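Reviewers of the previous submission asked for a worked example of the structure-prediction workflow described in the proposal, so we include one complete record here. The input consisted solely of the amino acid sequence. No template or homolog information was supplied to the procedure at any stage.
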Amino acid sequence: MSERESARDILRDLLQEALAGGNGNGVVPQIPPPPVAAVHRPSTWSPAPGEGAAGVEHVRLESDADLDRFVRALLVRFESPQEREAVRAGRLRFTLGSSEGPTAGAVRVERGAVTERKVEQAANAGGRLVLGPRAVLTPLAREKARAKGIEIEQER
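From that input alone, the workflow returned the following structure tokens.
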């Protein structure tokens, strides 16, 4: 048997073993798929507050119910390690908003898809969502807004 044939046999055996999943311990290595968000984000995407970008959220607290709603929403947000770390590190801050002005207590979105996350921000900010002419509300976001009683205003 020549060297070339011997190398082919060894390579064939190695490929057969690799394709059969045998790596010495009988476990087939699993390669996880990339996170869905990393695959589907457009090139114009920018991180939301709590995902690395500096952010300030205005919170309107005019009653005990507003305070209770804010604290409960904050507890839900703290379940996400990224948002919890953003608050702890000061990348996400909260300020008291006033009830004066047409968009006070509202989350404004100029363009792009309005997702459930923005609806949740609107719920924390006071219950209004103002959409610019180039903003599109996703069906799930519309459903969540309806469930939370968020007022949606579409500008033309």
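The two ends are 80 Å apart (CA to CA). We consider this example representative of the routine output the project will generate in years two and three.
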